[in-house]
Amino acid sequence: MEVIMAWSRIRSALVITGKFVNDLLSLIIFSILDLVDFVLCYLYKIIDFFVEAEWKPCYCSSPKEAMTSSGKILVSEQGESSKVVCLMNCSSTKLQLEEISDTLYTRPALLSDLSKSTKIKKGSGKPRRSTFTVNSTIVGTTTGQHQSHDHPPIPRWSDCDCKTCNSWASSCKETLYVKAQGPITDNVQEDVIFIHGFISSSAFWTETLFPNFSESAKSKYRFIAVDLLGFGRSPKPDDSLYTLREHLDMIERSVLEPYKVKSFHIVAHSLGCILALALAVKHPGSIKSLTLLAPPYFPAPKGVQATQYMMRKVAPRRVWPPIAFGASMACWYEHISRTICLLICKNHRLWKILTKVVTRNRIRTYLIEGFCCHTHNAAWHTLHNIICGTAGKMEKYLDVVKNRLKCTVTIFHGRDDDLIPVECSYNVQSRVPRAHVKVIENKDHITIVVGRQKAFARELEEIWKNSTS
Predict the structure, then answer these.
(1) Where do the AB hydrolase-1 domain residues begin and end (predicted)?
(2) Which parts of 22-151 are beta strand (E)?
(3) Is 374 among the catalytic positions?
(4) H or E stretch including 430?
(5) Active-site residue among 265, 376, 384, 445?
C-alpha cells in the first residue's frame, strides 16, 4: 500500500512538472513565433511586390496600409487597435459579412494576451473586447471579375503550379472535383455523400472505404466523395474567402444538382462534420442518416465569445502534443502558416518522392497528397471561417438535428485523438440525445478510419441498412 501511495505521489509530481515545463516552453516559443510572424509580414510584402508587382493586405495590416488600391472592400474593426477585413474581388456577387470570423483579425500575441488576462484578474472591470462594425450586412461586390478560361488564373508564386493542384483551371466548369462510385443513375437506390476534414481530400475515403464496401453495398449505394473548395483537385480561387456559404454552394452545385441527389446519407470527418450539419440544416427532409467522425464541438461558456473560445480550444498554443503545436501555428500565424505551405505544398512532389524512397515504396501516399494539395489562402480562411467562425452556430444546427431531423445520428471518435478530444462527441450527444457515440480504443484523429477501413465499412453499411429498415 505504501509503495502504491508513493508511486501515486511521484506520478502526480511528474504530471505537475511536465505541465510547468510545457507551459514555460510554450510561453518562450510562441513569444518568439509572434516576433517571427511580424518579420515575415514585411518580408512577404517585399517579395510579393517584386514578384507580382503588388502586395495584398493581410489581416495584420492597418486600414491606412490596406487602402492602397481600388477594387477592394475594406471593413474596419474598431477597438484598442484598428484592424481590417479585406474582401478582394470576391468570386460571388454577394457576401454576407457575418460569415467572416473575427478570429481572422483578432489574434493577440501571447505576451499581450497574458498581460490582458492578468489585468482582468486584478481589476474589477470587464475586459475590453473589440467589436466588428457590421453584423449581417450584405455587401455587393461590383469589382469582382472572373477570369476567362482563355486566360486561366495564374497561381501565386508561393503556391504550387503543378497539373494536379491546378487541374481545375483548364476545366470549363467551376465545380468541385467529385469521385462517384456505384450503379448507374437509373439503378441508384440510395446516395451517400462523404465530406473530408481539414487539409485532406476525397482520397481519405476513396482509398480506404470505397474498395472495402461489400458487393451488395456497391450495387445498392452510390458513393460520392468530393474535394472541398480549395483542396485536392478542386478549384482554389485566390479571391475567395472560403466561407460556409461558398462551401455549401459548391457542394450543392457539384453534387446535389448534377447527380440529381434527392435524399442521401452523410459521412463526415472533423471539419467536414460542420459542413455536414450545415447541409443537413439546409436540407432537413433529405437526410437519411448522419455519421460524424470526431466532430469539433466545444460549447462556449456563458459570456465568452464562441469564435475566440473555439480558436483557443483547437489551437491552444502549446508545444505538446505535437498536433496541438501544428494546429496552433496554422491558426495563429498568418505568415508562418504561409511559409509552411510554401515549404510543404509547393514542394509536395518532392516530399512524395522522398517518402517513397525512405519507405522503399511500401506505403501509399494518398494522405500526403491530400495534406499538401491546397493553398495557404484556402487553408487559412477555411480554418478560421468554418472551424472558428461557425462556433456560435453549432448549437442552432444541433437543435435543428434534434427537433426537425428524424434520421439516425451516429458519432465515432478515437480515444487517443489529441486534436479533437472525445468530450466533443459527448457534447454533441448532450444536444442530440438520440445520437449514438462509439469511442474506438487506441485510435486517433486519422486512424479512426485509416487502418480500420474494413471494420468501418461494415459499420457504415449496418447504419445505412438500419436507417432505411
Answers:
(1) 192-298
(2) 72-78, 83-88, 94-96, 131-132, 138-140
(3) no
(4) helix 423-431
(5) 445
- Grid coordinates representing 22 are 510545457
Those residues whose C-beta lies under 8 Å from the C-beta of residue 205, and which sit 6 or more positions away, are: 194, 196, 223, 225, 267
* 439 contacts 413 by C-beta, under 8 angstroms: yes
Catalytic residue among 91, 196, 200, 384: 196
Q: Is 270 a catalytic residue?
A: yes
Q: Which three cell numbers stand for residue 353?
A: 518522392
Active site residue 445: yes
Which residue in 359, 346, 99 sits closest to 246, CA to CA? 99
Residue among 384, 382, 383, 56 nearest 242 (CA): 382
pLDDT tens sequence for the chain (469 residues): 777 777 888 888 888 998 999 999 999 999 999 999 999 999 999 999 999 888 778 888 654 444 344 344 445 444 444 444 555 444 444 555 678 898 988 887 655 555 444 443 444 444 443 333 333 333 433 333 344 445 566 788 999 888 888 877 766 568 999 999 987 656 667 999 999 999 999 999 999 999 999 999 999 999 999 999 999 999 999 888 999 999 999 999 999 999 999 899 999 999 999 999 999 999 999 999 999 999 999 999 999 999 999 999 999 999 998 989 999 999 999 999 999 999 999 988 888 888 878 877 666 678 888 888 999 999 999 999 999 999 999 999 999 999 999 999 999 999 999 999 999 999 999 999 999 999 999 999 999 999 999 999 999 999 999 986 4
Q: Give the span between the Cα atoms of 31 and 170, in whole angstroms.
A: 44
265 is catalytic: no
Residues 417, 425, 444, 467: which is the catalytic one? 417
Cell of 236: 482554389
Measure the CA–CA gap between 29 and 22, rounded to whole angstroms.
10
Distance set, CA 322 to CA 30, 211, 332, 419 (Å):
14, 32, 15, 9
Helix locations, 345-418, DSSP H? 348-358, 366-372, 376-382, 394-403
Peptide bond preceding 322: is omega within 30 degrees of 0, i.e. cis? no
Residue in this structure with the C-alpha cell 456559404, named with its chain if needed? 245
